Amino acid sequence: xxxxxxxxxxxxAGLLLSRLLHRAGxxxxxxxxxxxxxxxxxxxxxxxxxxxxxALREAGAAERLDAExxxxxxxxxxxxxxxxxxxxxxxxxxxxxxxxxxxEVVKDLIALQLADGAAVHFGAEVRSVEGAxxxxxTVRYAHDGLDKTLTCDYVVGCDGFxxxxxxxxxxxxxxxxxxxxxxxxxxxxxxxxxSCDELIYAHSSRGFALHSMRSPEVSRMYLQVPNGTDPxxxxxxxxxxxxxxxxxxxxxxxxRGPITSRSVLPMRSSVTEPMRYGRVFLAGDAAxxxxxxxxxxxxxxxADVVVLSRALVRRHRTGxxxxxxxxxxxxxxxxxxxxxxxxxxxxTLHTDPDQSPFDTRLQISQLDRIAASPHAAAELAMxxxxxxxx
Length: 390
What we know:
Oligomer: single chain
Shape: globular
Number of strands: 19
């Protein structure tokens, strides 16, 4: 079997790219190793920046997002018993964010693609990508108990850091830059209405905490914990007590409810360069990972595939390869900007196990500056709501 674009990985990046290419008339095949039910249940990000929402609307995949997504015009910072709200629209020329779970984005894109008869194959385990530097790279995979081969004009790896596509870029060409943080996030889902209208990012001597939400009835919260923490070691009461202590603010109350899910997420940053080798392209987690503090993971992946879809459509319609040739450099400029913002949010709000009182005073000084300076607040708001796509 042959296709113009072979897409490996059926997460939001692969699905959005498939959708954009399908609507533009570019032949493509998407291969996802997991079954549909598993893909639609993977809990991941929940914040969509302005450019991601714009891309989903362009793809015709925002009907439910526009009806059910929660529009947020800001976030709240808390530290030393104080609170300061960052107003996005006034600082970003009207840009904002939406709370809409990644699982819902994936469900919407899958339903649309299958309804349109697009080539989306679940349970297709890719074994290798060969011939990246040839005119027709080859994807070898297993599906329905059979070994199969897909030749492509281009291959796009949206299969994550541990996926096979990264291996198609030779080690002598591929460079990976990484940072591992000395703490993790303990995340919970709880059947209780959120205690806030917008996200709360809390700095405290006990560690970082985040109050988010999945819907008007479901709260999503995180605690900074040591690496290696077992979520089973915490009772529900201990979790709520610790959240209470870190969010503490006079006149504000954290509502409690049944905890339905708990997990621990390690924190790290990673960037792989280049994001293209021959006719193989990397997108999303296959190329970069950010700590979740800046809400950039899903949004960076969406930006990658929007840039790449435009380049592939231009190649299909005009034969021009200039945008394809510029893909890696174009994306990496945005990636490193997002990596820096995520690093800034993470190191400003978290407490390092080896942190000195001097380090803490620097964090407090930075938070004070954001509250006092419109320029500092605007820098945070512009990066959080998402820089416009080129």
